Structure formats: C-alpha cells, structure tokens
C-alpha cells in the first residue's frame, strides 16, 4: 500500500528539506557553531570508542586474521607448528606484542630523524558511511596535539591531524581522497604531489617535465613551511607503475604507501620537528631476498647382486 | 506521534548510533563493511508511516552529520536520509513481505550512498577513485544483504513495542 501522507506530512517534508538546505548553507559559509557541535559529539563519543577498542580488540584480531588469510596462509602454516606450545600464552599477549612492535618501529623511525613525537593508540576507524579515510586517536590538545601535525606509523607516513578535541583527535589518513602531500624522490631532488585514492595506492604527479620516474623509486615527504602539516624526510611509499602516456606535461605514476592502513594500532604524532632535515636517512632498506637452499644429490649406483 | 514515542525513537537511534561508532567502527571489514545504524533507519522507515519516517530520517541524518571524520557539509546526510526515508516509507508501508523489506533496505542504503557521492561531488567533496567507490558500493550492498535478515526481526520487535502496532511481518 502506498501512503504518501496527509497535507501535514507533505508540509513536514518541505520544512525538513528546507532545514537541511539551511544547515548545508550555514556550514558552507563557515558558521563555527556547527564545528562546535561536531567537536562536542566527538568528545562524547571518544570514551565509548576507547571502551569499544579495549573490549573488542581480541575479536578485531580474529577478523583481521580472517581478512588476511589468503596472503598469510603460507606463513600461518609455517608458524602453526611452532606456535602449538605457546598458543595459549600468545592469545593473551598477541595484542600487546603487536602494539609493542608497532610502537618500537615508530620510535625507531622518529628517533632516527630526530622528530619529537607523542605515541598514541588508534581507538576507532573512520565511519563507513562517509567515504573518508580517517581514524580516531586517544590523545588531543591536552597532550599537545594541534591540527595539521604529521602522524607516523611504524613504516612511514600515516596521515595528518585533522581536528583536535581535548582527549581525542581525528587523523586524515594518507589514503583519503582529499589527502595531498608534497614528496621528493629519495636520492634526488625531483618533486611531485601525491594524492590519496581511497585505498593503499596513491597517484603521484611530478612537477618537472625534465625528470623521469622509475618503478621502485622511493618517495619521502618534502616537508612544509614551519613543518606543518608535514615534517621532511618521512618515508611515504614507492612507485609501482609509471604512466608514460603521451600528452602529459609531466610524468605521473602509481604509488604504494608503506603504511598498511587496515592494521593501524599504534601511531605517533610529530609534535616537534627536527632541527636539521633528515634527508634520505629514513629510506627503508631494500628487502633482502631470502636465499633458496640448494641440495645436491649424488647418485651412487648400488652394487649389483647379479654376477 | 506522541512525545513518548519520539523520545523512545530518539533513544533507540542514539543507542544504535553510539554502538555503530564505538563498536562497529573497530572493524576494518573488506568491501567497506556495513552500517547497523542505516539498516535500522531504513528498516524502521519501511514499516512506519511517512510522518514517522520523516522524523526518523531527520534525526538520524543529524546524527550522521555530527560524525567529525566526514568532509561533507553539515546537513548533507540530513537532506539525503530525509528524502530516502520518505521514499522508503511511501513505497513500503504496509508491505507484508519480509523479503521485500530486506530488498527495500538494500536499495535505500545503496541509493543513499549514491546520492551522498553525487551531491558530494557537486559540493566539491573528494570521494576517491571510481573503482574504489564501485567496490565499496558493491561490498556494502552485499554486507547489508547478509546482515539485514538477521537484524530485521529484532528491529521489528523494537518498533512494535514503541509504536504499539504490529508491523505486518
């Protein structure tokens, strides 16, 4: 049965549409009251998100393992035998160890470059309805965090602080479609702009038409004026494909971020920039190929039983 | 609608919204995951009269606009959810077929996201690569198809207890 409602209902529909359009106009004109309401909501939500993070972490790890099963099947098979004895203990310690590892790597990265960082946990992934790639971290202005500060993961850039509340902050991930970062190719002074695409790969556009891009080139953050939003030298990703199509003024390419945005657990906010530019010192070492053991078998004929 | 019914509706929407933002947002599900909150909103709209659906749509749209991670202007979700909720109620109120309700919820979810993306593009919001968007739309639709039949009986019971009307399911 189709029920369109009475005249009063249609009037209500028109009033609500007009109200929505009024709210959109207010926001686009930059009325700060609405920002305050959003900030207040985040302040209310952050304790719940913190609690959810604590309660659901074991379940989250299970889902993460299931999601990555295809990629890590061989590794899991190998580890299964070794882990049999320690399984019970590992179940309890898995989360702590993972966060400790991430924390150690973040501190190593920050320490090498001389960044002053504040470490923090990710307490919530961004909302699935918004098509924006964000996470919520459990520190805010009380810990010295300000908008437009660089956020590091254990392997490189994670994103930039978007909004700050007293005890939590929203971080725009480098994978967000609105994310833009000036990058430099390690070992050279070639520069370009990297844009997020909503996934772990980004699009690099070189600025100089005299320079060339190669697959495997490593990209580092170029740094911003007064080191905000980006401090220099942070590893960003590496080039996986180069677009050489004719008609382009400068080369472009596809870049894979070092950071796996799906497993962010511990990140660090850079609250103090280094006194000197770290240059290429943070370029990650190239993976060393694992040597394949070769076994040579000499065939020795057994003595014949027949004479 | 009485004050009591409005208060109870807002309480349920608020509770599910907090659950979505604090618990469901912990999981990085493949294909973009699903929103229990949107499933509730559209399921309730489908079994309510148009005036109730408008109130539900407006309240839930405001809640979605309050999520700070979004680049979308405040009011965009409100406008979309009001329109989609009204359309859902207009088309589905009185439908006795649970399967029909499930498909209406999926279609409403998909429509809301497409309207969000289209209006976002008009307003200058960056929404990402087309391939990624398509993957997310397909992924969320599949998730919604899986989750809605599980949650629909619960949501119907809650609706029935607040509005004191059987929802014909």
Topology (elements, then pairings):
The complex is a heterodimer of chains A (307) and B (169).
Chain A lengths: L6 H22 L3 H36 L1 H15 L3 H27 L2 E10 L8 E4 L12 E3 L4 E8 L4 E5 L6 E6 L5 E6 L4 E6 L11 E4 L13 E9 L8 E6 L8 E7 L35
Antiparallel strand pairs in A: 1-2, 1-12, 2-5, 3-4, 3-12, 4-5, 6-7, 6-9, 7-8, 8-11, 9-10, 10-11
Chain B lengths: L2 H20 L13 H11 L3 H16 L10 H17 L5 H25 L7 H34 L6
Helix pairs in contact in B: 1-2, 1-3, 2-3, 2-4, 2-5, 2-6, 3-4, 4-5, 5-6
Question: In short, what is this structure?
Answer:
The complex is a heterodimer of chains A (307) and B (169). Chain A has 307 residues and is α+β, with helices and mostly antiparallel strands.
* Share of β-strand residues of chain A: 15-25%
The total count of helices of chain B amounts to 6
Specify the oligomeric state: heterodimer
What structural category do the secondary elements of chain A indicate?
alpha+beta
CATH class value of the largest domain in chain A: Mainly Beta
Task: Please give a structural write-up.
The complex is a heterodimer of chains A (307) and B (169). With 307 residues, chain A is of the alpha+beta class. Chain A is built from 4 helices and 12 strands. By secondary structure, chain B is mainly alpha-helical. Chain B has a single domain, classed as Arp2/3 complex 21 kDa subunit ARPC3. Chain B is globular and about 45 Å long. The two termini of chain B are 22 Å apart. Classes of the chains: A alpha+beta (307), B mainly alpha (169).
């Amino acid at each position: 049965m189709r029920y369109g409602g009475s005249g009063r209902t249609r009037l209500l529909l028109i009033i609500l549409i007009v109200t929505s359009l009024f709210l959109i106009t207010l926001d686009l004109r930059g009325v700060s009251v609405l920002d305050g309401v959003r900030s207040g909501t985040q302040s209310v939500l952050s304790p719940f998100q913190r609690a959810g993070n604590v309660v659901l972490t074991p379940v989250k790890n299970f889902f993460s393992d299931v999601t990555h099963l295809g990629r890590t099947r061989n590794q899991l098979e190998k580890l299964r035998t070794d882990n049999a004895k320690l399984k019970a203990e590992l179940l309890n310690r898995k989360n702590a160890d993972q966060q400790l590892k991430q924390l150690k790597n973040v501190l190593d990265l920050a320490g090498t470059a001389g960044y002053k960082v504040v470490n923090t946990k990710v307490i919530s992934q961004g909302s699935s309805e918004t098509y924006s790639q964000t996470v919520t971290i459990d520190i805010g202005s009380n810990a010295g965090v300000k908008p437009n500060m660089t956020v590091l993961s254990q392997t490189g850039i994670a994103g930039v602080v978007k909004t700050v509340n007293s005890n939590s902050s929203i971080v725009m991930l480098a994978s967000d479609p609105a994310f833009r970062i000036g990058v430099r190719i390690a070992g050279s002074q070639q520069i370009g702009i990297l844009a997020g695409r909503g996934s772990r790969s980004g699009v690099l556009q070189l600025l100089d038409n005299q320079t060339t891009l190669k697959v495997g080139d490593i990209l580092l953050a170029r740094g911003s004026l007064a080191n905000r939003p980006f401090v220099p030298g942070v590893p960003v990703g590496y080039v996986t494909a180069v677009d050489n199509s004719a008609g382009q003024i400068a080369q472009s390419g596809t870049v894979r971020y070092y950071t796996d945005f799906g497993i962010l657990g511990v990140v660090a906010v850079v609250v103090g920039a280094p006194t000197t530019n770290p240059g290429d010192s943070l370029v990650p070492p190239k993976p060393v190929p694992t040597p394949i053991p070769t076994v040579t078998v000499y065939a020795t004929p057994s003595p014949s039983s027949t004479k | 609608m009485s004050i009591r019914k409005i208060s109870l509706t807002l309480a349920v929407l608020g509770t599910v919204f907090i659950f979505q933002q604090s618990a469901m947002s912990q999981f990085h599900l493949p294909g973009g995951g699903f929103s229990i909150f949107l499933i509730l909103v559209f399921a309730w709209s489908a079994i309510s009269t148009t005036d109730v659906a408008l109130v539900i749509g407006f309240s839930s749209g405001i809640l979605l606009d309050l999520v700070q991670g979004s680049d979308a202007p405040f009011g965009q979700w409100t406008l979309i959810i009001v329109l989609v909720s009204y359309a859902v109620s207009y088309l589905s109120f009185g439908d006795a077929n649970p399967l029909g309700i499930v498909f209406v919820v999926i279609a409403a979810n998909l429509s809301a996201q497409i309207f969000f993306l289209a209006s976002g593009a008009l307003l200058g919001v960056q929404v990402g690569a087309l391939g990624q968007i398509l993957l997310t739309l397909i992924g969320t639709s599949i998730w919604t198809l899986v989750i809605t039949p599980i949650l629909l009986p619960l949501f119907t019971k809650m609706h029935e207890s607040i509005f004191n009307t059987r929802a014909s399911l």
